[in-house]
Amino acid sequence: MGLTTRQLEAVAVLETARDSCIVAGPGSGKTTVLVEYFKRLVAAGTDPLRILAITFTEKATTNMQTKLGLAFQERGYVSTVHGFCARLLRENAIFAGIDPDFYVMDERESARAQRVAVDEADARSIRRRYRRSDSGCL
After folding, report:
1. Using alpha carbons only, what angle is made at residue 28 by residues 79 and 80, rounded to the nearest 5 degrees?
2. Whole-number Å distance between alpha carbons of 93 and 98
3. What are the pLDDT digits (tens) for 67-104?
4. Would you kindly state where each structural domain of the chain is located, as residue ranges?
């Protein structure tokens, strides 16, 4: 299956830029364009392990890794935004002052942590208001 005219235009634009961002609607072929661009970079002599592709969804990451796996033995690094950030933090955890064994919360854990943080902030705010009202200030 070949690229559409618009996809070919996108690949051509990518070839003129060092860092690139593709924004398009669902099903428009963003992954296909990125894989084609990746192939062209490698054909021009770029080491696949020096290419970083960041996607927004696990589905797009898996799709791109699969397509690259069919084209190359070494696939480069493809990740979601949060996966890339977690990798970067893990590789530099000591320098960043965080526990190297940290993990990224799932949606349920994140929602629970947000509720706890809001409840704690509300409780602190209420205590401050109560202390100010005792001193005659409101």
Report:
1. 10
2. 5
3. 888 877 766 788 999 899 999 999 999 999 999 899 88
4. 5-104, 106-138
Residue whose token pair is 């064994």: 101
Distance (Å, rounded) from C-alpha 66 to C-alpha 55?
14
Only one residue has tokens 């893990």, namely 90
Distance, CA of 64 to CA of 22 (rounded, Å): 14
Alpha helices in 1-138 (DSSP H): 5-15, 30-43, 58-71, 81-91, 93-96, 107-134
Going by pLDDT thresholds of 50, 70 and 90, the confidence category of residue 8 is: confident
Q: 79 pairs with which residues across the strands? A: 54
Rounded to whole angstroms, the Cα distance separating 85 from 118 reads 25
55 sits in which H/E element: strand 52-55
pTM: 0.62
In CATH, what number does 5-104 get? 3.40.50.300
